[in-house]
Each structure stands twice: as C-alpha cells, then as structure tokens.
Design a protein that fits this description.
Elements (H helix, E strand, L loop, with lengths): L2 H8 L7 H7 L5 H33 L15 H14 L5 E4 L5 H8 L4 E5 L2 H13 L5 E5 L12 E4 L6 H11 L5 E5 L10 E3 L6 E5 L4
Parallel strand pairs: 1-2, 1-4, 2-3, 4-5
Antiparallel strand pairs: 5-7, 6-7
Helix pairs in contact: 4-5
The structure holds S-adenosylmethionine (SAM).
Length: about 220
C-alpha cells in the first residue's frame, strides 16, 4: 500500500489524523451548550403555554359539542329574531321567558325590549359573560343569564320557551316540555319544529321559520 493510500485510510475526507484534527476544530463551549438548552426550554414553554391557553379559550365552544346531541353555537339571523318577536307579540305569553342555549343573548335582549322579563341559559361561559356584560352595559335589568344546562332547568318558573336547537334533540325536548311546562305556556321553536305537537302558528320561511306551540291544559 502506498503512503497516500495509508493517509486517506485514517481520514478519508482530508487525509488528516483525526486526533490532531479534533485539537484544531472549534469545540462547543459549556456556556454555549447551556444557552442552547435554555433557548430550547424557552421555546417549549412558550409553545406549550400558547397551546394550553388556546385549549382553555376554545373549550367553552367545544364542550357543548362533546355531548350526546351536538348543539353548536349558531347565532339567530335578524329575520329569525324578528319572527320570534312576531310570535311573542301574537301569543302574548303571561310570564317569564327563557331562551334555551342563549348564545350572545340576542333573543333574550329582543324579548326584554318587547317587555318580557327574559332569562337565557347557556353552557358556554364566554357567551354567558358576554351577555351579562351587555345587560350591565345597557342597563337592561329584565334580561338575565346563567351558565346552565338546558336539561336541568326548573321550567315551572317560565311561561314561554324559545329554542333554536338541532333536529336530533327535538324529540327529547318535546318530552321534557310535556313533563315540565305548565299548561298554556308557549314554546317558540326556531328552524326545527317539535316532531309530534301541532303548531298554533308558523311564521316565516326557510331556515328562519319559527313554530309556536301551546302546552295543552290537562
Ligand atoms: C344554535 S345556538 C343558538 C344561540 C341563540 N339562542 C341564538 O338564537 O342566537 C345554540 C346554543 O346552545 C348552547 N348549548 C349547547 N348545549 C347546551 C345545553 N345543554 N345547555 C345550554 N346551552 C347549550 C350552545 O353553546 C349555543 O350557544
């Protein structure tokens, strides 16, 4: 074997002795190593914190969707709110109104404006906070809100119910209303009708339709 071949065997790239090479190659100092570790930790903490914050922020919007029947936040259109107001003006419920899943409170505020003391129950705590803040800001004492599951409401306190739900939950709600509402109370169902009850009135059309029902006297 020639001398050149022998040298290249030790370090095929430059032909240098690896030990001698290691003496002249720049080494990472312990200070640099520590600062690199710190930067890594900082980035991990920032991204981890941001992910946690985002999860906490989104949770109230996602939580209702984790339930058996998904009832997402879809605000009522202006036409839909107008139809609810038309319905209330026609049937004139004689007592407090409750909006089930009150969202940003738009139906509760419209009904309160019409003269009906109204309450909104809503699972999303951000929306409940927002609605309460709006009621406080505009000094509307007849519009109140609570963070509550609509399936755990004491319905005996109310004479009118507004619901903008989803199709799949209407049979369960129908049974709940039958059991919990006092006779001659009114129900205004938005977009999805109750499956078996005969409506007193149907107002509007398409996705803005509302159906009005009266709980039968027993
Ligand atoms: C279709 S949106 C209607 C919002 C509002 N009523 C409107 O018309 O603008 C349904 C609302 O119900 C809420 N929700 C879902 N499940 C609920 C439950 N079990 N109890 C109370 N609110 C619920 C959702 O967070 C959402 O804001």
């Amino acid at each position: 074997m020639s001398a050149v071949e022998n040298i290249n065997k030790e370090n095929p790239t430059c032909g240098c002795d690896p030990y001698l090479l290691s003496l002249i190659e720049p080494q990472t100092s312990s200070v640099e190593k520590k600062s690199g570790k710190f930067t890594g930790l900082l980035i991990a903490s920032i991204t981890g914190g941001a992910a946690l914050g985002l999860t906490a922020l989104c949770y109230p919007f996602v939580a209702p969707a984790l339930r058996r029947v998904v009832l997402p936040y879809v605000p009522a259109s202006t036409a839909q709110v107008d139809n609810v107001i038309k319905a209330l003006s026609l049937v004139k419920p004689n007592g407090r109104l409750i909006d089930l899943g009150s969202g940003d409170g738009r139906i509760v505020f419209a009904a309160a404006k019409l003269g009906y003391p109204s309450h909104g129950v809503e699972l999303n705590s951000v929306l409940v906070f927002y609605s309460k803040f709006q009621a406080w800001k505009h000094k509307i004492q007849t519009a109140t809100f609570s963070r509550q599951d609509l399936f755990k409401v004491d319905y005996s306190k109310f004479r009118a119910v507004v619901i903008f739900g989803v199709d799949q939950m209407m049979p369960e709600l129908e049974a709940l209303f039958e059991k919990s509402l006092s006779p001659s109370s009114h129900i205004v169902a938005c977009r999805f009708p109750l499956p078996n009850w005969k409506p007193l009135l149907t107002i509007g059309e398409g996705i803005d339709t509302v159906w009005v029902y009266e709980v039968k006297k027993t």
